Amino acid sequence: MGKNRQRYKRNHHFIPRLYLRGFTEPESPSMLWVYEHGRTYAPGIGRLTSNPYYNSISKAGMEQDHYAFRRDDGTMDYETFENALEKKEKSADRLIEKIRGFLPLNEEEKLVLAQYMIMMHKRVPKRAEEAQGDWPEVVEERAKVWTESFNEARRIRQAEGNENALQNLDKLRMRVEEQFNLYREGMTDGLRLAAMLRGMPMTQMAIASMRWQYFKAPHGTFFVTNNNPVFRFKSLGLSNLQPEITFPISSSVAIVGSWYLDMPELIRQVSSGVVQEINRRTCFSTYRYVYARAAHKQVYDLVQDLVPDSESKLSVLYDYILPATGLPTDPDWVRQL
Hints:
The chain is of the alpha+beta class. The protein is built from 11 helices and 12 strands. 32% of the residues are buried.
Protein backbone atom coordinates (compact mmCIF):
# COMPACT_ATOMS: atom_id res chain seq x y z
CA MET A 1 0.00 0.00 0.00
CA GLY A 2 2.80 2.40 0.91
CA LYS A 3 4.55 1.72 -2.38
CA ASN A 4 1.39 2.52 -4.30
CA ARG A 5 1.12 5.89 -2.59
CA GLN A 6 4.68 6.79 -3.55
CA ARG A 7 3.93 6.25 -7.23
CA TYR A 8 1.71 9.34 -7.34
CA LYS A 9 2.53 13.02 -7.22
CA ARG A 10 1.04 14.06 -3.90
CA ASN A 11 3.12 17.12 -3.06
CA HIS A 12 1.12 19.67 -5.03
CA HIS A 13 2.53 23.16 -5.53
CA PHE A 14 -0.14 25.85 -5.54
CA ILE A 15 2.68 28.36 -6.17
CA PRO A 16 4.95 27.24 -9.06
CA ARG A 17 8.58 26.69 -8.12
CA LEU A 18 9.87 28.72 -11.05
CA TYR A 19 7.79 31.65 -9.80
CA LEU A 20 9.08 31.28 -6.22
CA ARG A 21 12.66 31.13 -7.48
CA GLY A 22 12.40 34.85 -8.19
CA PHE A 23 12.10 35.55 -4.46
CA THR A 24 14.99 33.45 -3.13
CA GLU A 25 18.19 34.60 -1.47
CA PRO A 26 20.72 35.82 -4.08
CA GLU A 27 23.41 33.52 -2.69
CA SER A 28 21.02 30.55 -2.25
CA PRO A 29 18.73 30.36 -5.31
CA SER A 30 16.63 27.55 -3.88
CA MET A 31 16.01 29.06 -0.41
CA LEU A 32 13.72 31.81 0.83
CA TRP A 33 12.09 33.15 4.01
CA VAL A 34 8.49 32.30 4.87
CA TYR A 35 6.47 34.73 7.01
CA GLU A 36 3.28 33.61 8.71
CA HIS A 37 0.48 35.87 9.88
CA GLY A 38 -0.37 35.79 13.58
CA ARG A 39 2.95 34.56 15.00
CA THR A 40 5.71 36.33 16.93
CA TYR A 41 8.77 37.65 15.10
CA ALA A 42 11.57 35.12 15.62
CA PRO A 43 13.68 34.48 12.48
CA GLY A 44 15.25 31.05 12.30
CA ILE A 45 15.38 27.70 10.54
CA GLY A 46 12.72 25.85 12.51
CA ARG A 47 9.35 25.87 10.79
CA LEU A 48 7.40 25.32 14.02
CA THR A 49 9.47 27.65 16.20
CA SER A 50 10.50 30.48 13.84
CA ASN A 51 8.77 33.33 12.03
CA PRO A 52 9.95 33.92 9.41
CA TYR A 53 11.53 30.54 8.83
CA TYR A 54 14.09 29.44 6.25
CA ASN A 55 12.69 27.04 3.65
CA SER A 56 13.36 25.65 0.19
CA ILE A 57 11.15 26.35 -2.82
CA SER A 58 10.52 22.62 -3.15
CA LYS A 59 8.62 22.74 0.17
CA ALA A 60 7.21 26.28 0.17
CA GLY A 61 3.89 26.96 -1.56
CA MET A 62 3.05 23.26 -1.40
CA GLU A 63 0.27 21.23 0.15
CA GLN A 64 -0.17 17.47 0.03
CA ASP A 65 -3.07 16.34 -2.17
CA HIS A 66 -4.23 19.92 -2.80
CA TYR A 67 -5.39 19.00 -6.32
CA ALA A 68 -6.51 15.45 -5.53
CA PHE A 69 -10.14 14.40 -5.88
CA ARG A 70 -12.24 11.26 -5.59
CA ARG A 71 -13.41 9.72 -8.84
CA ASP A 72 -16.94 8.42 -9.35
CA ASP A 73 -15.68 4.87 -8.77
CA GLY A 74 -14.37 5.85 -5.33
CA THR A 75 -10.64 5.83 -6.18
CA MET A 76 -8.42 8.87 -5.66
CA ASP A 77 -6.95 10.86 -8.55
CA TYR A 78 -3.77 12.63 -7.43
CA GLU A 79 -2.27 13.73 -10.72
CA THR A 80 -4.80 14.88 -13.34
CA PHE A 81 -5.05 18.48 -12.18
CA GLU A 82 -1.46 18.75 -10.94
CA ASN A 83 -0.23 17.68 -14.39
CA ALA A 84 -2.70 19.97 -16.19
CA LEU A 85 -1.52 22.97 -14.17
CA GLU A 86 2.14 22.16 -14.81
CA LYS A 87 1.41 22.07 -18.53
CA LYS A 88 -0.47 25.37 -18.49
CA GLU A 89 2.09 27.27 -16.42
CA LYS A 90 4.97 26.32 -18.73
CA SER A 91 3.62 28.62 -21.45
CA ALA A 92 4.40 31.60 -19.20
CA ASP A 93 7.80 30.48 -17.87
CA ARG A 94 9.74 32.21 -20.65
CA LEU A 95 7.76 35.43 -20.17
CA ILE A 96 8.43 35.53 -16.45
CA GLU A 97 12.15 35.12 -17.12
CA LYS A 98 11.94 37.85 -19.76
CA ILE A 99 10.46 40.33 -17.27
CA ARG A 100 13.06 39.33 -14.69
CA GLY A 101 15.59 40.37 -17.32
CA PHE A 102 13.88 43.81 -17.32
CA LEU A 103 12.27 43.47 -20.73
CA PRO A 104 8.59 44.44 -21.27
CA LEU A 105 6.16 42.06 -23.02
CA ASN A 106 4.43 42.57 -26.35
CA GLU A 107 0.63 42.40 -26.71
CA GLU A 108 0.54 38.69 -27.53
CA GLU A 109 2.80 37.86 -24.60
CA LYS A 110 0.63 39.94 -22.27
CA LEU A 111 -2.36 37.75 -23.13
CA VAL A 112 -0.41 34.63 -22.16
CA LEU A 113 0.76 36.10 -18.87
CA ALA A 114 -2.72 37.45 -18.12
CA GLN A 115 -4.01 33.87 -18.31
CA TYR A 116 -1.19 32.81 -15.96
CA MET A 117 -2.22 35.53 -13.49
CA ILE A 118 -5.83 34.33 -13.55
CA MET A 119 -4.68 30.76 -13.00
CA MET A 120 -2.50 31.88 -10.08
CA HIS A 121 -5.54 33.52 -8.49
CA LYS A 122 -7.78 30.49 -9.01
CA ARG A 123 -5.36 27.75 -7.92
CA VAL A 124 -4.36 28.97 -4.45
CA PRO A 125 -6.00 27.78 -1.19
CA LYS A 126 -7.62 31.17 -0.55
CA ARG A 127 -9.58 30.94 -3.80
CA ALA A 128 -10.70 27.40 -2.90
CA GLU A 129 -12.12 28.79 0.34
CA GLU A 130 -13.84 31.63 -1.51
CA ALA A 131 -15.30 29.21 -4.06
CA GLN A 132 -16.74 27.03 -1.30
CA GLY A 133 -18.24 30.11 0.34
CA ASP A 134 -19.76 31.36 -2.93
CA TRP A 135 -21.09 27.95 -3.95
CA PRO A 136 -24.53 28.01 -2.24
CA GLU A 137 -25.39 31.35 -3.84
CA VAL A 138 -24.20 30.14 -7.25
CA VAL A 139 -26.31 26.98 -7.00
CA GLU A 140 -29.45 28.89 -6.02
CA GLU A 141 -28.96 31.44 -8.80
CA ARG A 142 -28.60 28.65 -11.38
CA ALA A 143 -31.59 26.80 -9.91
CA LYS A 144 -33.70 29.96 -10.17
CA VAL A 145 -32.75 30.47 -13.84
CA TRP A 146 -33.48 26.82 -14.59
CA THR A 147 -36.88 26.96 -12.86
CA GLU A 148 -37.90 30.08 -14.77
CA SER A 149 -36.86 28.51 -18.09
CA PHE A 150 -38.65 25.27 -17.25
CA ASN A 151 -41.87 27.04 -16.26
CA GLU A 152 -41.86 29.00 -19.50
CA ALA A 153 -41.29 25.84 -21.58
CA ARG A 154 -44.07 24.04 -19.72
CA ARG A 155 -46.45 26.97 -20.22
CA ILE A 156 -45.83 26.86 -23.98
CA ARG A 157 -46.33 23.08 -24.22
CA GLN A 158 -49.46 23.28 -22.08
CA ALA A 159 -50.92 25.94 -24.36
CA GLU A 160 -50.21 23.63 -27.30
CA GLY A 161 -51.89 20.71 -25.53
CA ASN A 162 -48.79 18.58 -26.08
CA GLU A 163 -49.14 15.91 -23.37
CA ASN A 164 -46.09 13.89 -24.45
CA ALA A 165 -43.88 16.97 -24.26
CA LEU A 166 -45.27 17.83 -20.82
CA GLN A 167 -44.51 14.34 -19.53
CA ASN A 168 -40.94 14.53 -20.89
CA LEU A 169 -40.48 17.95 -19.32
CA ASP A 170 -41.66 16.66 -15.94
CA LYS A 171 -39.21 13.74 -16.12
CA LEU A 172 -36.42 16.16 -17.03
CA ARG A 173 -37.37 18.39 -14.12
CA MET A 174 -37.06 15.49 -11.67
CA ARG A 175 -33.56 14.62 -12.95
CA VAL A 176 -32.38 18.23 -12.85
CA GLU A 177 -33.78 18.82 -9.36
CA GLU A 178 -31.99 15.70 -8.15
CA GLN A 179 -28.76 17.13 -9.53
CA PHE A 180 -29.34 20.49 -7.87
CA ASN A 181 -30.00 18.73 -4.57
CA LEU A 182 -26.63 17.02 -4.90
CA TYR A 183 -25.02 20.41 -5.60
CA ARG A 184 -26.69 21.85 -2.49
CA GLU A 185 -24.79 19.30 -0.40
CA GLY A 186 -21.58 21.15 -1.30
CA MET A 187 -19.08 21.85 -4.04
CA THR A 188 -17.13 18.69 -4.83
CA ASP A 189 -13.37 18.79 -5.30
CA GLY A 190 -13.81 17.64 -8.89
CA LEU A 191 -16.09 20.58 -9.72
CA ARG A 192 -13.81 23.08 -7.97
CA LEU A 193 -10.72 21.80 -9.74
CA ALA A 194 -12.40 21.72 -13.15
CA ALA A 195 -13.47 25.36 -12.65
CA MET A 196 -9.87 26.24 -11.79
CA LEU A 197 -8.71 25.15 -15.25
CA ARG A 198 -11.57 26.81 -17.11
CA GLY A 199 -10.55 29.93 -19.02
CA MET A 200 -11.91 33.41 -18.32
CA PRO A 201 -11.46 35.12 -21.72
CA MET A 202 -13.17 38.40 -20.78
CA THR A 203 -11.07 38.83 -17.64
CA GLN A 204 -7.96 37.75 -19.51
CA MET A 205 -8.59 40.38 -22.20
CA ALA A 206 -9.29 43.07 -19.58
CA ILE A 207 -6.00 42.43 -17.79
CA ALA A 208 -4.01 42.28 -21.04
CA SER A 209 -5.65 45.50 -22.28
CA MET A 210 -4.41 47.45 -19.27
CA ARG A 211 -1.26 49.51 -19.56
CA TRP A 212 1.46 47.53 -17.79
CA GLN A 213 4.30 49.22 -15.96
CA TYR A 214 7.27 47.18 -14.78
CA PHE A 215 8.48 48.58 -11.46
CA LYS A 216 12.10 47.99 -10.58
CA ALA A 217 12.95 48.05 -6.88
CA PRO A 218 15.84 50.34 -5.87
CA HIS A 219 18.99 48.94 -4.29
CA GLY A 220 18.45 47.84 -0.71
CA THR A 221 14.73 47.13 -1.17
CA PHE A 222 12.82 44.14 -2.50
CA PHE A 223 9.34 43.00 -3.45
CA VAL A 224 7.71 40.11 -1.61
CA THR A 225 5.10 37.62 -2.75
CA ASN A 226 2.55 35.33 -1.12
CA ASN A 227 0.23 32.40 -1.77
CA ASN A 228 -2.32 34.70 -3.44
CA PRO A 229 0.01 37.05 -5.34
CA VAL A 230 -2.31 38.86 -7.78
CA PHE A 231 -3.77 41.87 -5.97
CA ARG A 232 -6.83 43.80 -7.10
CA PHE A 233 -9.32 46.04 -5.35
CA LYS A 234 -12.29 43.66 -5.07
CA SER A 235 -14.79 46.41 -4.26
CA LEU A 236 -14.04 48.28 -7.50
CA GLY A 237 -13.56 45.59 -10.12
CA LEU A 238 -11.37 45.49 -13.21
CA SER A 239 -13.71 47.67 -15.29
CA ASN A 240 -13.35 50.65 -12.94
CA LEU A 241 -10.90 53.11 -14.48
CA GLN A 242 -8.89 54.14 -11.44
CA PRO A 243 -7.63 51.08 -9.53
CA GLU A 244 -4.71 48.89 -10.46
CA ILE A 245 -3.68 45.28 -10.27
CA THR A 246 -0.25 44.40 -8.94
CA PHE A 247 1.69 41.20 -9.47
CA PRO A 248 5.25 40.80 -8.12
CA ILE A 249 7.43 38.87 -10.57
CA SER A 250 10.60 38.74 -8.49
CA SER A 251 12.32 40.52 -5.64
CA SER A 252 13.45 43.11 -8.18
CA VAL A 253 10.44 43.70 -10.43
CA ALA A 254 6.65 43.87 -10.16
CA ILE A 255 3.89 44.47 -12.72
CA VAL A 256 1.38 47.24 -12.13
CA GLY A 257 -1.55 47.21 -14.56
CA SER A 258 -3.76 50.28 -14.90
CA TRP A 259 -6.08 52.20 -17.22
CA TYR A 260 -3.67 55.15 -17.56
CA LEU A 261 -3.52 54.38 -21.27
CA ASP A 262 -1.28 57.29 -22.31
CA MET A 263 1.61 55.93 -20.28
CA PRO A 264 4.17 53.97 -22.32
CA GLU A 265 4.87 50.47 -21.05
CA LEU A 266 8.30 50.83 -19.52
CA ILE A 267 10.65 49.41 -16.94
CA ARG A 268 10.51 52.11 -14.25
CA GLN A 269 12.92 52.56 -11.36
CA VAL A 270 10.66 53.38 -8.43
CA SER A 271 11.14 54.68 -4.90
CA SER A 272 11.22 52.68 -1.71
CA GLY A 273 7.76 54.13 -0.96
CA VAL A 274 6.31 52.43 -4.04
CA VAL A 275 7.93 49.13 -3.07
CA GLN A 276 6.47 49.51 0.42
CA GLU A 277 2.97 50.16 -0.93
CA ILE A 278 3.04 47.18 -3.32
CA ASN A 279 4.35 44.97 -0.51
CA ARG A 280 1.51 46.24 1.69
CA ARG A 281 -1.00 45.10 -0.93
CA THR A 282 0.72 41.73 -1.30
CA CYS A 283 0.69 41.17 2.45
CA PHE A 284 -2.97 42.19 2.68
CA SER A 285 -4.04 39.67 0.04
CA THR A 286 -2.17 36.76 1.60
CA TYR A 287 -4.00 33.61 2.62
CA ARG A 288 -1.41 32.75 5.27
CA TYR A 289 2.17 32.95 4.04
CA VAL A 290 4.42 35.66 2.60
CA TYR A 291 7.66 34.76 0.84
CA ALA A 292 10.75 36.99 0.68
CA ARG A 293 14.45 36.92 -0.03
CA ALA A 294 15.42 38.01 3.49
CA ALA A 295 14.25 38.11 7.10
CA HIS A 296 13.28 41.74 7.80
CA LYS A 297 11.26 43.17 10.67
CA GLN A 298 9.66 45.67 8.25
CA VAL A 299 8.20 42.83 6.17
CA TYR A 300 7.04 41.04 9.31
CA ASP A 301 5.21 44.20 10.45
CA LEU A 302 3.38 44.40 7.11
CA VAL A 303 2.35 40.77 7.37
CA GLN A 304 0.93 41.27 10.86
CA ASP A 305 -0.59 44.76 10.43
CA LEU A 306 -2.88 44.01 7.51
CA VAL A 307 -4.38 47.16 5.99
CA PRO A 308 -7.81 46.83 4.31
CA ASP A 309 -7.78 47.76 0.63
CA SER A 310 -10.00 50.78 1.31
CA GLU A 311 -7.17 52.24 3.42
CA SER A 312 -4.42 51.38 0.95
CA LYS A 313 -3.59 53.88 -1.78
CA LEU A 314 -5.80 53.25 -4.79
CA SER A 315 -3.08 54.15 -7.27
CA VAL A 316 0.69 54.03 -6.88
CA LEU A 317 0.84 55.46 -10.41
CA TYR A 318 -1.32 58.44 -9.46
CA ASP A 319 0.42 59.10 -6.15
CA TYR A 320 4.03 58.36 -7.07
CA ILE A 321 4.60 58.12 -10.83
CA LEU A 322 2.32 60.48 -12.78
CA PRO A 323 3.59 63.73 -11.20
CA ALA A 324 7.04 62.99 -12.67
CA THR A 325 5.79 62.17 -16.19
CA GLY A 326 4.10 65.43 -17.17
CA LEU A 327 0.85 63.55 -17.88
CA PRO A 328 -2.40 64.89 -16.36
CA THR A 329 -2.87 63.79 -12.76
CA ASP A 330 -6.63 64.33 -12.53
CA PRO A 331 -8.17 60.82 -12.52
CA ASP A 332 -11.01 62.13 -14.73
CA TRP A 333 -8.63 62.48 -17.67
CA VAL A 334 -8.66 58.72 -18.10
CA ARG A 335 -12.37 58.78 -18.93
CA GLN A 336 -11.70 61.16 -21.84
CA LEU A 337 -9.36 58.79 -23.69
